[in-house]
Structures are given as structure tokens and as C-alpha cells.
């Protein structure tokens, strides 16, 4: 199998990396954090680069690219710990293109592609933990469509988004709906999260909604799996930059008159960090390549990838802090922000322990050494 990136993918990587290095420096990021953790102007710049259109079908104004292209973009955004939730554009475009009626696609996909509309997934409920089959949100038919009553938590950029993809119970089964933030009965409460990005609590009280699909469980699983693949790619970028920062610091920091990078024990720890990074990178590739498989295989692959990524993120983040010493946890130093990002990514769409349980539950009868 050829794992080389195409010329177009390399060009995409170079373009996103240049924007991160020149247009999204640490000082700009700190300004966005101080303003609340989301900047519509920065999201617009991602749209100008074509990233919001990346996985939107060409028929709806997008570029029609696949999961590997999205992975390349997310890796580079991870290097700059970019706060704006580009992954939500990938989630929304894949779910709407795969499950929504043509009229809904024609209405929303061109706006997602242009960056005019930010559509985010709002699925997390307090009692659900990471389970996708637990949903207390209710939907009922109304004169002009449907009305939703729900409370959803940790909705990415929820008080800034233009619309939400919301799973809810309809006639005893999970369906997926699209709800506009400007609709009546919609209330949001925004806040900053651990990694300094913006999320919100979303409350719906008989809010008018558009039905995306009655097969909401399948659509929700696709949405979360798309998110997991994006998280894995983003984490690889964060870890790659974390390792680079650590090595740079070790070459500068001196103890007993010599750089600490010359100490063999510390060099071994950096080698272990690099090994964990490469294990994570390979499993991120695996997740993206499996995103188009049939649902059962796709779900198994995402759980496996998230277990390895979770282990790698924890190891790389903790070792980086240890090797930096006290400066590694100060807010003024960028390394601490990479550590916080890794901490949050490990819990996004299910932490390591949850996905270890998923891997175990999805093992087939032939699994084992002698299979």
C-alpha cells in the first residue's frame, strides 16, 4: 500500500502550515482566548484557504476531497493549537451529504463550504457520558415541521454557531435534526474550556427543527467517528510540535555547564516520546483510512485509534512537562497550552478508558493470538 501523500495533499499541508506560522501566532491566539476562545475572522481565514469546503461535495460548492485531506489539514492546525473548530465543518458536511434530504443539503452545504455558516454537533448529555445510545432529548411533530426540547452540553462554539445537529427521540427511536441558533426557544450559555477554546450549554424549549434523518443513530455514529478521526489527526500535530518544543528547550537549558540534551537519561525519554508520537501517527492514518468502511468496521477502527492516541497524548504531554521543569506549566509559556490541549483531546468523543471498553466489546470471536 502506498502511504505517500499526493502532490495536492503536500500543497495543502504547506498552505495550512504557512497560515499557522504567519497568521496564527501565539500572541494572536492569546488575544482570541482573552476575547472568549473563538474568532469568526480566523474561521473566515480558514474558509478562504478552502478548508471549510474541503469535504463538501463539488455539487454543493465544495472541493469534494476525502478523509486523508481532512487529516492533513487537522494535523497542521494542531501544530498551532488553533481554537476555531474546523472539525465541525467536516462532521456537518459528511453527515448532511450522507443522510440529509436534497433540499437540506442544497440549503446548508454551500454555506458550510463558504464559511458563512458554522454548523456544529450538539449531542452530549449529562447522563450519557460518552455513550451514543443514551438520549433524553425529545422531538415532536409541529404544524411547520418538528419541535425539540433538549439540553446539550459542551457544544463546540455553541453560542457562536449558526446551527446545530441535534439527536433526539422521535416515536421511540433516535432521529437527527438541524436547529438554527436564531430560532425561538434556543438558549445558549458560552464558556471557555480546558484548552481555552469556546463551548456552550445548549437548551431547546420546543425549538423549531428540520429533520435530517430518522436513522439518527447511524448518522450520530458517523458524526462522532468523523470527529474522532479529526481529533486523532489534530493530536498528532499537537504532539509533533510538543516534541519539537521540548527538544529545542533541552538544547538551550544548561545544567552543570552543559545543555541538558546531552544527558543520556533525558535523551532516552525524548526517544520514548518520539516513539509514542509515531505510534499515534500510524493509528491516526489508520482512523482516516477506515472512515469510509462499513459502520461496524469503522466503529472498531475508531475505538482502536483513540486508545493509542489517548495513551500517546498522556505520555508525550507528561514527559514534556517533566523535561521542561517548572516553566512547563506556566501560562506564559506556549508548552503548557499544548499540554492542556492534549489533556482535552484525550477526553473528546470518549476518553481512553471508554474506548478500551469499546475495543473489548467489539472484539470478534476469532480475536486472539491464535486467530
Automatic annotation (TrEMBL):
InterPro entries: Acyl-CoA_Oxase/DH_mid-dom_sf (IPR046373), AcylCo_DH-like_C (IPR036250), AcylCo_DH/oxidase_C (IPR009075), AcylCoA_DH/ox_N (IPR013786), AcylCoA_DH/ox_N_sf (IPR037069), AcylCoA_DH/oxidase_NM_dom_sf (IPR009100). Its cofactor is FAD. Residues 6-116 form the Acyl-CoA dehydrogenase/oxidase N-terminal domain. It comes from the Bacteria. Pfam families: Acyl-CoA_dh_1, Acyl-CoA_dh_N. Gene3D superfamilies: Acyl-CoA dehydrogenase/oxidase, N-terminal domain (1.10.540.10), Butyryl-CoA Dehydrogenase, subunit A, domain 2 (2.40.110.10), Butyryl-CoA Dehydrogenase, subunit A, domain 3 (1.20.140.10). SUPFAM superfamilies: Acyl-CoA dehydrogenase C-terminal domain-like, Acyl-CoA dehydrogenase NM domain-like. Keywords: FAD, Flavoprotein, Oxidoreductase. The keyword Flavoprotein applies. Residues 229-351 form the Acyl-CoA dehydrogenase/oxidase C-terminal domain. PANTHER family: ACYL-COA DEHYDROGENASE, ACYL-COA DEHYDROGENASE FADE28. Belongs to the acyl-CoA dehydrogenase family. This is Alkylation response protein AidB-like acyl-CoA dehydrogenase.
Amino acid at each position: 500500500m502506498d502511504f505517500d501523500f499526493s502532490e495536492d495533499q503536500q500543497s495543502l499541508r504547506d498552505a495550512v502550515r504557512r497560515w499557522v506560522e504567519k497568521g496564527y501566532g501565539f500572541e494572536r491566539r492569546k488575544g482570541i482566548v482573552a476575547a472568549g476562545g473563538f474568532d469568526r475572522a480566523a474561521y473566515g481565514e480558514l474558509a478562504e484557504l478552502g478548508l471549510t469546503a474541503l469535504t463538501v461535495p463539488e455539487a454543493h460548492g465544495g472541493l469534494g476531497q476525502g478523509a486523508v485531506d481532512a487529516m492533513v489539514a487537522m494535523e497542521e492546525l494542531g501544530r498551532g493549537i488553533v481554537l476555531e473548530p474546523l472539525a465541525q465543518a467536516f462532521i456537518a458536511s459528511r453527515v448532511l451529504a450522507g443522510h440529509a434530504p436534497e433540499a437540506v443539503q442544497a440549503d446548508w452545504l454551500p454555506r458550510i463550504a463558504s464559511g458563512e455558516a458554522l454548523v456544529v454537533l450538539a449531542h452530549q448529555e449529562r447522563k450519557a457520558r460518552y455513550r451514543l445510545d443514551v438520549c433524553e432529548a425529545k422531538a415532536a411533530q409541529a404544524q411547520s415541521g418538528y419541535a425539540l426540547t433538549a439540553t446539550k452540553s459542551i457544544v463546540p462554539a455553541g453560542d457562536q454557531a449558526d446551527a446545530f445537529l441535534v439527536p433526539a427521540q422521535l416515536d421511540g427511536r433516535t432521529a437527527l435534526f438541524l436547529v438554527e441558533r436564531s430560532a425561538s426557544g434556543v438558549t445558549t450559555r458560552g464558556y471557555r474550556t480546558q484548552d481555552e477554546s469556546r463551548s456552550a450549554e445548549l437548551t431547546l424549549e420546543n425549538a423549531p427543527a428540520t429533520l435530517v434523518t430518522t436513522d439518527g443513530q447511524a448518522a450520530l455514529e458517523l458524526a462522532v467517528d468523523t470527529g474522532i478521526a479529526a481529533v486523532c489527526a489534530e493530536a498528532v500535530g499537537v504532539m509533533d510540535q510538543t516534541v519539537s518544543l521540548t527538544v529545542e528547550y533541552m538544547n538551550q537549558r544548561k545544567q552543570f555547564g552543559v545543555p541538558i540534551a546531552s544527558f543520556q537519561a533525558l535523551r532516552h525519554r525524548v526517544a520514548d516520546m518520539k516513539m509514542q508520537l509515531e505510534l499515534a501517527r500510524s493509528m491516526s492514518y489508520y482512523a482516516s483510512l477506515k472512515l469510509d468502511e462499513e459502520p461496524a468496521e469503522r466503529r472498531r477502527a475508531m475505538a482502536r485509534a483513540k486508545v493509542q492516541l489517548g495513551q500517546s497524548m498522556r505520555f508525550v504531554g507528561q514527559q514534556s512537562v517533566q523535561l521542561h521543569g517548572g516553566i512547563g506549566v506556566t501560562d506564559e509559556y506556549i508548552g503548557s497550552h499544548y499540554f492542556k490541549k492534549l489533556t482535552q483531546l484525550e477526553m473528546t468523543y470518549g476518553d481512553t478508558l471508554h474506548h478500551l471498553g469499546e475495543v473489548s466489546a467489539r472484539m470478534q470471536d476469532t480475536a486472539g493470538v491464535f486467530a
